[in-house]
Amino acid sequence: MNIKNFQFSIFNFQKRRAFTLVETLVAITILTFAVTGTFLTANNALIAAATSRNQLTASYLAQEGIENVRLLRDNAYLSAYSAGGTSVSVNAWSGFLAGPISTCVAVSCDLGLPAMTGFTRAIRATPLSASDEKITSTVSWSYHGVPYTVTITDHLTPWQ
Q: Regarding beta strands 146-156 and 132-143, do their DSSP bridges make them parallel or antiparallel, or are they unpaired?
């Protein structure tokens, strides 16, 4: 082996360029931001999907509250109809207003929502006239500490 060849290989080794610690840290930082952004986007998508699911469930529960009040009105009509008489509609409407819905006028009531759902429903009946009741069904829930509500209103009148 010749000394010239040996010196040449040493200088060649020193001229080779390698990654520095700073370049490696910059590459790791960029990779970390790319992966973190992807995970944050996926997390936001999961939260949005859960919120949409809960909002749909709350809409159904609020509509069910309105339907429960309609059922009370219809049952009052059927009771008055089976009892007979000349003013069935007036008697049915009076029976409806004096029945379980009367507690929903002073304070909100629930009318049958299961307690273990994580949702709370409040139904309020507001008299607008002698033959018109405004029924408001509000369903509330909390997801990740953020409160949400869905409200549905309807007007009920006597049958005839």
A: antiparallel
Beta carbons within 10 angstroms of residue 98's beta carbon: 10
pLDDT digits (tens, 9 = 90+) for 69-98: 888 888 888 887 777 766 777 777 777 787
Collapsing DSSP to helix, strand or coil, 124 comes out as: strand
CA atoms within 13 A on the CB side of 51: 13
Q: For 31-41, what is each residue's pLDDT tens digit?
A: 888 888 888 88
Is the Cβ–Cβ distance between 96 and 159 less than 8 Å?
no
Label residue 10 by pLDDT band (50, 70, 90).
Answer: low
Amino acid at 69: V
Q: Measuring CA to CA, which residue among 155, 116, 122 is closest to residue 137? A: 122
Cα 107 to Cα 82, 93, 104, 124: the distances in Å are 31, 20, 5, 7
Is the dihedral angle over the CA atoms 88, 74, 95, 135 positive or is it negative? Answer: negative
CA distances from 144 to 48, 50, 62, 121 (A): 12, 10, 21, 19
